[in-house]
Amino acid sequence: MTTDPAGNERHAPRSTRAEVRNPVLALPAARVLAAIDPDIRTVLAWLLRDLRQDARSKSRQSWDRRKAFTAAYWASVATYAGHILRALGRAGSDRGRMPLVVRQPGFPDIAARDWADASHCYCGRRDHSGLGASEFPEGELAIGDRVVARISYNGRIWRAGPWHPGDKPHYDNWSATSAP
Q: Can you give the pLDDT at residue 96?
């Protein structure tokens, strides 16, 4: 119920209710999202934005290839990534508060927009330094104080922690530049 300027009570249109506009809010698990530590919500929000952007890109590629069912699937993934992002609350809408940061010992931190920008900044610094692989330090990617990934000398971005045989990069700068 809402009140109009004259003070009369009126029913609000169904379409203005938050749980109708974002069906994720009607799920019991959505309340748990609000209880998560704010720094973790910010990391989740950052990752969900990337997921949404990647899914939209895959949907467009599928439409271009006349693969309607695959395009619809990726469009749905993008939509629900956005719904979950908005269910995170303030962390979901406040990306500028905690950007992705490239950290390296002996160098100042660099803010990056996404994986590609972080890799590009790291590689630019590496090339400008003139140091080889044994002398130039690996980088860490952090959101706030939380390390979320690492960058190897070749500019690829890996999960945080040591490398293990069979690991695949989160972001491969070589395949990104050679993609059609």
A: 46
d(CA 171, CA 153): 13
- pLDDT at site 144: 77
Q: Beta strand pairing status for 146-151 and 107-112?
A: unpaired
Residue closest to 120 by CA, chosen among 145, 136, 97, 139: 139
Helix and strand element counts for the chain (H, E): 7, 7
- Tell me the average pLDDT of the chain: 83
Nearest to 82 by CA among 62, 98, 59: 59
DSSP, collapsed to helix, strand or coil, labels residue 123 as helix
| pTM of the complete model | 0.61
Residue 170's alpha-carbon distances to 62, 98, 135, 141, in angstroms, are 22, 20, 24, 12
The DSSP symbol for 151 reads E
